[in-house]
């Protein structure tokens, strides 16, 4: 990363931009939240899917693959038929959950204002 990239959301090397590119989906934040609530226990894929309304099997699979690749989640497969797949947040993933919790708090406190402004702009 170049020194100028730090804090410059317009620079593709900016850490904030790179993070938002990776975790900026609703499926990611929901998955991290569910895994954080279960910590330190693991959560099976099927249980995650049941707890995330509207997520497809493929989208959840892609989301989890990304979280595992980024070191935020660990994956464990039981050698059964069919295989049972379990997920758990890593220490890094747990630290991300803390940041996402701040964002959720902000949303709970301010989304009514955002929605109101949105409605006014539509008139």
From TrEMBL:
<dbReference type="Pfam" id="PF01638">
    <property type="entry name" value="HxlR"/>
</dbReference>
<dbReference type="InterPro" id="IPR002577">
    <property type="entry name" value="HTH_HxlR"/>
</dbReference>
<feature type="domain" description="HTH hxlR-type">
    <location>
        <begin position="14"/>
        <end position="115"/>
    </location>
</feature>
<dbReference type="InterPro" id="IPR036390">
    <property type="entry name" value="WH_DNA-bd_sf"/>
</dbReference>
<dbReference type="InterPro" id="IPR036388">
    <property type="entry name" value="WH-like_DNA-bd_sf"/>
</dbReference>
<keyword id="KW-0238">DNA-binding</keyword>
<dbReference type="GO" id="GO:0003677">
    <property type="term" value="F:DNA binding"/>
</dbReference>
<keyword id="KW-0804">Transcription</keyword>
<protein>
    <submittedName>
        <fullName>Helix-turn-helix transcriptional regulator</fullName>
    </submittedName>
</protein>
<keyword id="KW-0805">Transcription regulation</keyword>
């Amino acid at each position: 990363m170049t020194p100028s990239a730090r804090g410059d959301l317009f620079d593709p090397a900016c850490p904030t931009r790179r993070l938002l590119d990776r975790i900026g989906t609703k499926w990611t934040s929901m998955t991290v939240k569910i895994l954080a609530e279960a910590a330190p226990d693991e959560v099976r894929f099927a249980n995650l899917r049941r707890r995330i309304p509207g997520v497809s099997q493929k989208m959840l699979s892609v989301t989890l693959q990304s979280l595992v690749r980024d070191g935020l989640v660990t994956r464990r497969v039981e050698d059964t038929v069919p295989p049972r797949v379990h997920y758990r947040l890593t220490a890094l993933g747990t630290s991300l959950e803390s940041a996402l919790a701040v964002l959720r708090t902000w949303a709970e406190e301010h989304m009514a204002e955002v929605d109101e402004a949105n409605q006014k702009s539509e008139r």
